[in-house]
Every structure is written in structure tokens, then in C-alpha cells.
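Database export, one record per block. Field names are fixed; values are copied verbatim from the stored entry.
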Amino acid sequence: MCPLQVQKLSKKLDFSATKYRKFTMANPTDIRKGKVIDYNGVPHSVVEVQYGTQGRQAGFVQVVMRNLNTGASTAVKFLSSDNVTFLTTSTITLEYSYVDDMGHHFLDPETYEDICLPNELVESKKKFLAIGKPYDIACVNDKPVEIVLPASITMKVVDAPDGVRGDTASSVQKPATTETGLVVQVPLFIKPGEIIRVSSDDGSYIGRA
């Protein structure tokens, strides 16, 4: 577990990239989804990677990455002759506790310390976060930078309308609201109280848990 400095509730964690120790210089072909790289002095998490060539010219890597300070996404093309800097990462597991004006609060289950993550870090993932459940948090040099979700997440259905009587087509779906407020299109047989699996990529229904 990477150590965390407990912050007072009136403060947030400092995510300044200038405080990060550089890990290593590498070729863009080493870029993989989930890696964290230093881009223009700011930590960015790699979201998508595509490899390509330009005729007789050197190959390139097209990368979509998210700014871990602002949450904004950026598309960048790296030539194979470029260098990229990877940042040291590790993972901790924290329990989602509550949200207030300061941000999203997580509890360290071992130390019972309260860690407040800023809204911009959590914004893209909050629809998958349920109070009281554990989540992996990626750290760069001991500082939390991103919530790492598994490919599928289990959620409790809290509201789902009754299916239309007589409609048995397997392709017919209805909207269901989960415990986090996420609305998912589910089969007609899903009822409130059931636990379902949802894709963390697009929020689509996968199946019953």
C-alpha cells in the first residue's frame, strides 16, 4: 500500500506534476492503456492507443489521454522517434464514504484515515461509485491520481418499471436505475433489488451478478 498524508477537510491533495519523480524515458511504442505519462509537465492517464505507419515514414502512436489535474481528454500523435516519460504508479484500495462541497471522501480501511479526492479526479467515474464499496486508486509517487475500475461492476437495481405484459422479445429492454443513480437499459425480467453487472466502459448491462 502506498502511504498517504492525511489532509484536513479544509484542504485537498496537491496534484502538481512538478512534485512527481520521473520514472523512465521510453519509446512511444511502449505506451499502453492505463499507463501514466508526463505530458507538458502534467500527469496524463492513457485511455486509448492506436499504432500506425505513414507510408515509408516512421511509425506513430495515436494516444488519447486524460489530464489527471483537470480531467480533460487530449489526442496526441507520437512518432516512433519521440521519447515519452512514464511516471511511477502503485495502487491502494479505499472505501467510498461520501461526497460534499470539498470533493469525494474515501476511507482507508486499515488506518481509518479520510482522504478527499477533488471532483475533477472523480467526475468521470462517479456514476459507478456506491457508498461503502471498495475501489482501487492509482497513485503516482504516493499521490492518488485516478480511480481504477474493473471491466465490470456489480450494482443494485433500486428502480425498474414492470415489463409490458405479453412482450417476450429477448431484444426488448427497459430503463433501470441503480444505487448510484446510473440508468441502465436492462432486460424486462430485471426487478428492483436485483444485483446486475454493468460495463465500466460504457455503462451497458452485462448480466445478473
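Remark 1: The CA atoms of residues 95 and 133 lie 5 Å apart.
Remark 2: Residues 119-122 form the longest helix (4 residues).
End of record.
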